[in-house]
Amino acid sequence: MTEQSRGPGRVMTRDELAVDPVDLARRLLGCALESRLGDGVVRVRLAEVEAYRGLDDPASHCYRGRTPRNDVMWGPAGHLYVYFVYGMHFCANVVGLTDGQPGAVLVRAGEVVEGQDLARRRRPTARGNGAVAKGPAVLTSVLGLDREHNGVDLTDPESPVVLLAGEPVPAESVRTGPRVGVAAAMDVPWRFWIDGSPAVSTYRRGGRVRARANG
DNA sequence: ATTCTGATTCTCT
DNA sequence: GAGAATCAGAATT
Q: Which residues cross the membrane (predicted)?
């Protein structure tokens, strides 16, 4: 049991996750989210994440204060923040930070290392044939998560969704850049991904404004 | 290959 | 009422 509790594949502890979301994002690369719902197990090794750091971050859902939606981002760390977006999708975050400072890490993409058949069934139209979860809403639906999983404790082995430790990712394999789909705070490189992973989503600039040559 | 757009409803102003 | 941490398919900017 000691080996189980220390090595890759073990459920991560709250202490490991109770850090600044920018550090947590880097730390989550290579770790895995595993959902164990009624219809089976799906495990995704995280390859792309983004930090959202509450009060200082105009792109964070917490920027304008505490609301019923963003309540779980105020902690405790290690819980799941799921939100509904664009009228049809859910996105999942790992809550980090403590001390009354809200923050979380959006999980954007990963490799489906277990349960590819179930992943395909849950997301039949996704590109990648069930082997990758490319994009935050795809990743969330492949894990079978929605509104009802908001607030789940990822560090509790009894939870339907848990966060598993992974093999360390070498620093030279980690790349950073601006966050996807975010117009504000383009200067902070709070998107982290594993270089060369087939799961990493293509960058899209945020905001509805589109540059036009004339008009 | 890249760029554009419709889909669809919750949340906060 | 406007905008949204998106996706997939269609058009070709």
A: none
